[in-house]
Design goal:
The chain has about 140 residues and is α+β, with helices and mostly antiparallel strands. It is built from five helices and five strands.
Amino acid sequence: MDAKLAVTLIEQSPDSVIFAGLDGKIVVWNPESERIFGFTAAEAIGASLDIIVPEQFREAHWTGYDRALANKETKYKGQALTTRAMRKDGETIYVDLGFGIMLDDAGEAIGAVATARDVTERFHRDRETRRELRELKAAAKG
């Protein structure tokens, strides 16, 4: 693929596209990442992924990150995982994350790519719908 086309695809993606190296430092941070997470590319590139991983999830995140790099694949291949993330202003949001391990020409892991889509409104709406359904079921039994 032409390098210019690849850059354009990342920049124009409707989803956040983040690439981090083996050390977990951000190398690619597209405009949608800026919109979702609030960090500019200048702030994010070179920073640890910890800037968007809530404190209580960091240990599990890094365990999974290291395991996926060692295995050269993620256990979530082909799936989106809804999880909490953190914005620059400290707000917790919900995102659908897709993950992939990037390999070099020799087949060795060089880092991880993630796509993210902000689903906070949908998450809260679905939670409220589930709460209302539980209440209706309880009232119908009652």
